[in-house]
Amino acid sequence: MSEPVRGGVVRRAAVAEWGPLWRAVREPLAARGLRAIPLTLASVTLTLMLQIVQNQPWGYGPVQAAGAPTAEAPLPLALLRTPLSLFVPALDLPVWGALAQVLVVFGIAEVTLGRWRTLALAYTATLAGTLYARLGIRLGPDNPIGLPPGDAWVVDTGPSAAVVGLAVFVCWRLRARVTCALVVAAMVGEVVFVKNNLAGKEHIAAVAATLLVCLGWELAARRRAAGTARVGAAQRSR
User: Are 193 and 184 in contact (CB under 8 A)?
Assistant: First the structure.
């Protein structure tokens, strides 16, 4: 295959994969600018503020108490801490990474899905990770999806699970199927080859929860389409 032909094939494949996503993001941003992503900007600001506060001698305790769930804590307390935990950066990772993830992925999701749907999906993915930690510890380290008992005291914060969930849903929703598969494969590879720990397995839990949401969405869309088709057929037969 000649170089121009090969380049044309690659270009068409890229347009087919990312064209709908690019158009869905470009048009609202071109029309409204930063006004199109108020949730994203608020999330970035909140994440940065929590990072600053938790690094102060007087701020670490309150931030942990309000937004740092652990599997050893009572479930009601962990559930209360989970929403804010989405915006509390992990102390062992650079905050710029969390801010970049939120800005890019939350921004794309907010523009393409809407702010409330974005927030609901982000929380669903984060909650899946929080609940998985309890299940993993019960299963124990001998189970492939289990966790060692010591992970019960590991602080579970950061936007990464939400980012992964949103990335999977946006790619599925806008039919970027190859990219969606690559995100899922990257999370599996992270656990198998890089981080076989609580954080890595929570990403898998976030992916699994999001794929269930995708399946439910698809089934609901098919039911609506079938209902519309039946109504149309009934009207034509009159």
Answer: no
Beta-carbon contacts of 183 under 8 Å, excluding residues fewer than 6 positions away, are 164, 167, 168, 171, 207
The per-residue pLDDT for range 173-214, each reduced to its tens digit, is 998 999 999 999 999 999 999 888 999 999 999 999 999 999
Query: Which of 100, 96, 104, 84 has its CA nearest to residue 157?
Result: 84
- Global pTM reads 0.92
pLDDT mean across residues, the chain: 92
- Give the pLDDT band (50/70/90) at residue 3: low
Do 145 and 154 meet the contact criterion of CB atoms below 8 Å apart? Answer: no
Looking at the chain, the number of H-run helices and the number of E-run strands are: 10, 0
Using alpha carbons, select from 163, 161, 159 the residue that is nearest to residue 110. 163
Separation in Å, CA 188 to CA 90, 134, 161? 21, 20, 13
Distance CA 160, CA 125 (A): 9
Torsion of CA 20, 25, 30, 32, to 10 degrees: 140
